[in-house]
């Protein structure tokens, strides 16, 4: 969901929203929204629903491609919500992680044994990885830069993914 506006229909703006698995123009492979006649003032709210094809890190891009010498395009209040679809056969994850946000020690626990974990920064670069044989990990993340990270933990042969924020 996001708010957008132009100035008037005499100077229409053009913008699209794309999603992809890389933070590059070529990696933005799926168009989610497009408007080639933005002239509304004040803001309008656009809501876009989509389903990602697989677990992983995804990047959203907002691209203005207006004609030269147009006047004004504004984008504000970008919000991304995660909705988990319920199914009859869904099983609740027993993996827990805390605290979130974390300053120094991130604890990951599960009722099953955690055999390995990998931490990625928001660009998808692997920053920590190790094997384990425990149901409770205490990871020192104090050396990580502040920001959002993605963890993939292998627990009982199932890859579980979650995000945390490093303060």
Mean pLDDT score: 87
Distance between the termini: 26 Å
Structural class: mainly beta
Q: Roughly what fraction of the amino acids lie in strands? A: over 45%
* Helix proportion range: under 10%
Classify the oligomer.
single chain
Would you count the extended β strands for me? 11
Order of helices and strands: EEEEEEEEEEE
- Biggest sheet layout: 5 strands, antiparallel
- Whole-number total of structural domains: 2
The unreliable regions are: none
The number of helical segments is 0
| Rg computed from alpha carbons, rounded to a whole number of angstroms | 20 Å
Structure described in brief:
The chain has 167 residues and is an all-beta fold. Helix content is 0%, strand content 51%.
What does this protein structure show overall?
- With 167 residues, the protein is mainly beta.
- It folds into two domains: 2-76; 96-166, Immunoglobulin-like (Sandwich).
- Helix content is 0%, strand content 51%.
- The chain has strands spanning 2-5, 13-20, 30-38, 44-46, 59-64, 74-76, 96-98, 105-121, 126-140, 147-155, 158-166.
- The strands form three sheets. Strands 7, 8, 9, 10 and 11 form a five-stranded antiparallel beta sheet that branches.
- The two termini are 26 Å apart.
């Amino acid at each position: 969901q996001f708010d957008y506006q132009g100035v008037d229909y005499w100077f229409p703006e053009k913008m699209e929203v794309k999603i992809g698995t890389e933070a590059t123009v070529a990696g933005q492979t799926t168009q989610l929204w497009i408007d080639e006649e933005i002239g509304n003032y004040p803001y309008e709210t656009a809501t876009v629903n989509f389903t990602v094809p697989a677990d992983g890190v995804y990047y959203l891009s907002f691209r203005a491609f207006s004609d030269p010498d147009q006047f004004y395009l504004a984008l504000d209040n970008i919000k991304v919500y995660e909705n988990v679809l319920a199914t009859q056969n869904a099983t609740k994850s027993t993996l827990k992680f805390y605290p979130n946000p974390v300053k120094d020690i991130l604890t990951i626990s599960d009722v099953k044994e955690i055999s390995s974990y990998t931490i990625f920064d928001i660009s998808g670069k692997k920053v920590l990885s190790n094997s384990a044989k425990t149901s409770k990990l205490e990871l020192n993340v104090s050396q990580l830069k502040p920001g959002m990270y993605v963890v993939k933990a292998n627990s009982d042969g199932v890859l579980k993914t979650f995000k945390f924020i490093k303060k």
